Structure formats: structure tokens, C-alpha cells
Amino acid sequence: MQLAQKVIIADDHPLFRAALKQAVMQAVPGVEIVEADSLSAVQGAAEQHVDADLILLDIHMPGAHGFSGLVFLRGQHPGVPVIVVSGSEEPHVMKRAMDYGASGFIPKSSPLEVISEAITQVLEGEEWLPQEISSVADLPEEDYKFASALASLTPQQFRVLTMLTEGLLNKQIAYELSVSEATIKAHVTAILRKLGVHSRTQAVIAAQRLGVEPVKTDGM
């Protein structure tokens, strides 16, 4: 007997989660749905439900910090396809999502029938986009390298990096994660090594490159 497919819906807006749930049930009869309202919640759901068939990920929800959540999920769970669901509909945002490992991109303005079609297509092993994006430039090589380094972080290291980007001090991070300040210092040291940077500031600046609107550099 074939097991029911399992889909994780990650969005912090209850009404839109409900709409996605309806679209999923329309596309996959008998589906099991797991809901998450933050990046930490979807991380936990993905770790608990390792047999998930698909993740629908809002890149604007709490803790996601642009494409960093997508990159980390793809690194931790490479066998689970991710469809990015976003209010940003610009072609360059779609292209970056696909370059960072998404299997599809669904604008939040899409009707339920289109969302269901996208879910079906990705579950069948294909990619789905609402429009052609081949004319959009590829990511710079350094962004690919950073994404690969970010994906190598452990879940706890990723949480610490996320808190660093929010401006929290080691003492504050230790309190939030209920660990010692020495443990956080060790995590920060490991993060800097893996990301190939020499300071917390450099780590934060590098992580900001994964924002939905990329950080502009000189000459851009």
C-alpha cells in the first residue's frame, strides 16, 4: 500500500496557509499536511518529518532572512524539493530562488488552480515557474560559494548566524538558546571558519547577500 504524500507548508500568515492547504489538498488527494509559521518551525518540521515529499516556503516569514532559509533547507534536506511562495514577483527574484535550489516559484497572487498545478508538477519531479526567466543574469560565483558554505552549517550554527544578523550579542544569543556564552563563542568561531570570513561583521554582510533584494556593491 502506497503511503500518503506529506507536504510542509511554511508561511506566517494563517489565511494564506489555509489557501495553500486548500491548493495542496486539491492537487494531492489524501495528502498529510504539516504547518509551520517561522523558519525555526519549518526546520523542526523538516527534521521531524524526514519523509516529507515537498516544502512550500515563504521567504518573507520570521527568521527566513531572504534566501538564507531556502539555502539552509536545501543543504540539510537535499532530497526534499522546495517551492518558494512569495509576494515578490520580479523575474530576478524568481531566478535567484531557482539558482539557490528551489524547484518552483509561486507568486502569492496566483489563483488556487495555478498553485495546485505547480504543486503537481514539482511532485512529479519537474520545475515550475509562472514565466520565462532565461534572460535574467546568473548569480555571481561568490554567491554560489557562500550559499554552499551556508548550507554546511549545523542547525544550531545557522540559528546563531541568524541572531547575529539581527544584531544580538553573544550574551543575548546564549540567553535565547539557553546555552552558555562560551558555547556561543565556539559556534561563532566555527561559523566564521566555515564561511571563510574573519569577523562577525563580515559574516553578517555576507549573509545579507542572500536578502531578497541583493546588497549592491560598488559598480552596480
Automatic annotation (TrEMBL):
<dbReference type="InterPro" id="IPR016032">
    <property type="entry name" value="Sig_transdc_resp-reg_C-effctor"/>
</dbReference>
<protein>
    <submittedName>
        <fullName>Putative HTH-type transcriptional regulator yhjB</fullName>
    </submittedName>
</protein>
<feature type="domain" description="Response regulatory">
    <location>
        <begin position="6"/>
        <end position="123"/>
    </location>
</feature>
<feature type="modified residue" description="4-aspartylphosphate">
    <location>
        <position position="58"/>
    </location>
</feature>
<dbReference type="GO" id="GO:0003677">
    <property type="term" value="F:DNA binding"/>
</dbReference>
<dbReference type="GO" id="GO:0006355">
    <property type="term" value="P:regulation of DNA-templated transcription"/>
</dbReference>
<dbReference type="InterPro" id="IPR051015">
    <property type="entry name" value="EvgA-like"/>
</dbReference>
<feature type="domain" description="HTH luxR-type">
    <location>
        <begin position="146"/>
        <end position="211"/>
    </location>
</feature>
<dbReference type="GO" id="GO:0000160">
    <property type="term" value="P:phosphorelay signal transduction system"/>
</dbReference>
<dbReference type="InterPro" id="IPR000792">
    <property type="entry name" value="Tscrpt_reg_LuxR_C"/>
</dbReference>
<dbReference type="InterPro" id="IPR058245">
    <property type="entry name" value="NreC/VraR/RcsB-like_REC"/>
</dbReference>
<keyword id="KW-0238">DNA-binding</keyword>
<keyword id="KW-0597">Phosphoprotein</keyword>
<dbReference type="InterPro" id="IPR011006">
    <property type="entry name" value="CheY-like_superfamily"/>
</dbReference>
<dbReference type="Pfam" id="PF00072">
    <property type="entry name" value="Response_reg"/>
</dbReference>
<dbReference type="Pfam" id="PF00196">
    <property type="entry name" value="GerE"/>
</dbReference>
<dbReference type="InterPro" id="IPR001789">
    <property type="entry name" value="Sig_transdc_resp-reg_receiver"/>
</dbReference>
